[in-house]
Write a structure and sequence with these properties.
By secondary structure, the protein is of the alpha/beta class. The chain is built from 11 helices and 8 strands.
């Protein structure tokens, strides 16, 4: 999943793709680099981010989604916690809803996804982006994240959502150690939940804390996290740097899926088989 932030304040690329033309061109570039889908968001969810109203978010994302839907052959996801934004985005051509709160902040988003018969990504988030990094406390990280995602999945299914993907919320109210543990157990989480798992470690602060690299120098740390997630059994990764991630994942998949006869599967076969 390639990231398109149509925001002035996202932690990594805020302001770079705020105008629709730049965002559409970036989405086309991500598709050329090998993204299997692109994720368009109009509200920053970085730690400390202040919320925006639905009208502002819709004005940011709808022209971009409409433009991309006319140009791309891959699905477009809308990254939002608001039902009204999700509905407008789906009408504009989005085909996936990605809610970092898992339906907790606006439960009506579950009904929107169900009515549209589109996949829903349910994320794990405690609190709000503005406050999520304060007072982080888990007694049993894996158990609590799994249990809270199970509740979100159950609510989505009760609303009628058929296709669900879980996101453990890397960087969302988690310490460095929490993020590492969730990356290491991504496959285990998928088995417990019974749904595919997506992780989004790209360029995040915990990678900077681990490597002492500034934001602009976090490509290599991101690729390390992406490969670790793939080797542990994650099904999807959400990244800013699609081309580099695809190559890193090709190697990870070759190692993970190598045949018993010792012959590695070709890159094209790996790519189409994910």
């Amino acid at each position: 999943m390639g990231v398109i932030n149509v925001t002035p304040d996202s932690f990594s690329d805020g302001g770079r793709f705020l105008d629709s033309a730049s965002a559409i061109a970036h989405g086309e570039q991500l598709a050329r680099e090998g993204a299997d889908l692109v994720d368009v968001g109009g509200e920053s969810t970085r730690p400390g981010a202040e919320p925006v109203d639905a009208a502002t978010e819709i004005a940011r994302v709808v022209p971009v989604i409409r433009g991309l839907a006319a140009r791309l052959r891959i699905p477009i996801a809308i990254d939002t916690c608001k039902a009204a934004v999700a509905e407008a985005a789906l009408q504009a051509g989005a085909e996936v809803v990605n809610d970092v709160s898992g339906g907790r902040l606006d439960p009506r988003i579950l009904d929107v996804a169900a009515r549209a018969e589109v996949p829903l990504i349910v994320g794990h988030l405690r609190g709000l982006p503005a406050t999520m990094q304060r007072g982080i406390a888990f007694h049993d990280l894996f158990a609590e994240v799994a249990e809270e995602l199970e509740l979100a999945i159950a609510a989505a299914r009760a609303a009628g959502v058929a296709q669900i993907i879980a996101d453990p919320g890397i960087g969302f109210g988690k310490t460095v150690g929490h993020n590492l543990a969730l990356l290491r157990r991504a496959g285990e989480l998928s088995l417990r939940l019974g749904v595919p798992v997506m992780v989004g470690p790209s360029r995040k602060a915990f990678l900077g804390a681990l490597t002492l690299q500034p934001l602009a120098e976090r490509l290599a740390p991101t690729l390390g996290a992406v490969v670790a997630a793939a080797m542990s059994g994650a099904d999807f990764v959400r990244v800013h740097d699609v081309a580099a991630a695809r190559l890193a994942l090709a190697v990870a998949d070759a190692v993970r899926l190598q045949g018993e006869d010792g012959e590695a599967r070709p890159f094209d076969e790996l790519r189409t088989g994910r």
